[in-house]
């Protein structure tokens, strides 16, 4: 029986690499993206890995309920099952709380959080009926630790954490596994997209702090590791019989989480302040 994986946001970054990795492992991969005209890089990478015949591109925007319904019913009518869902689509909105509009906040939550909820709800009845399935939510270290200049992103990823924890309890009696992958900074296009769209103004009272945040983000992006690590981990989770709830990975990710868990809050805050000097 062919195993089927459904992935969101496969035009670039982790989504693209995960689509190739799961196809390499023998999954029939439904690689979804907002604009199917962007599929060139994915198909080239799948071709190089010898996995192109297993990758199928479909148009899906996680903020558009109609595209979600269409893709899921198409997958069911063609393959009759969904074994793995990777909720990967997302973006990082930069800027200080006061300077972002409510529209900015809503779009961040619509994509990074409600997109995950909508995709998950669409496949839950299928996986529950199969009494098997794995849902991998791509969270972030920013879902465990809030940094200045990225409040909407942190809020959306903290929301994904709570959602996943609760859902894991709900679905374990049905054999459906919910897993959170929490990467630190990795070299993907997300940095350029986020930094290019930062909201501020020339006379902003947050100007200096924002510059420090930008410098920190640029340094982190430049030194970030190869995103294939994340795709490899999702592949191992997909084939694992009993994956954990959380997998943190990336440069400094575990250290940051230990720091938050073990240090007095004031000290931890001081470490973040120091990093942003
Ligand atoms: N890279 C990192 O350092 C890092 C660290 C922690 C977590 N993450 C998370 O990893 C995930 C993937 O990000 P990435 O780093 O691989 O960045 P990326 O290369 O920018 O990939 C993001 C993907 O999400 C898609 N997307 C955005 N909005 C969408 C929507 N409404 N519907 C469907 N697809 C949408 C993008 O499509 P378009 O091409 O159409 O924009 C793109 O394919 C995100 O959830 C991100 O928060 C990344």
What's the helix and strand layout?
Blueprint: E1 4-7, H1 13-24, E2 28-33, H2 40-48, E3 55-59, H3 65-79, E4 84-87, H4 102-130, E5 133-138, H5 151-171, E6 176-183, H6 190-196, H7 207-222, H8 228-239, E7 246-249, H9 253-262, H10 265-275
Parallel strand pairs: 1-2, 1-4, 2-3, 4-5, 5-6, 6-7
Helix pairs in contact: 1-2, 1-8, 3-4, 4-5
The structure holds NADP nicotinamide-adenine-dinucleotide phosphate.
Residues 8-9, 11-15, 33-35, 38, 61-63, 88-92, 111, 115, 138, 140, 183, 185-186, 188-190, 193 line the site of NADP nicotinamide-adenine-dinucleotide phosphate (NAP).
Structure description:
- The chain is 51% helix and 13% strand.
- 40% of the residues are buried.
- The model has no long low-confidence stretch (mean pLDDT 96).
- It has helices spanning 13-24, 40-48, 65-79, 102-130, 151-171, 190-196, 207-222, 228-239, 253-262, 265-275, and strands at 4-7, 28-33, 55-59, 84-87, 133-138, 176-183, 246-249.
- It has a 7-stranded parallel beta sheet with strand order 3-2-1-4-5-6-7, with helices on both faces.
- Helix 1 (13-24) packs parallel to helix 2 (40-48) and helix 3 (65-79) packs parallel to helix 4 (102-130).
- Strand 2, helix 2 (40-48) and strand 3 (55-59) form a beta-alpha-beta unit.
- It has a single domain, classed as Rossmann fold, CATH 3.40.50.720.
- NADP nicotinamide-adenine-dinucleotide phosphate binds at residues 8-9, 11-15, 33-35, 38, 61-63, 88-92, 111, 115, 138, 140, 183, 185-186, 188-190, 193.
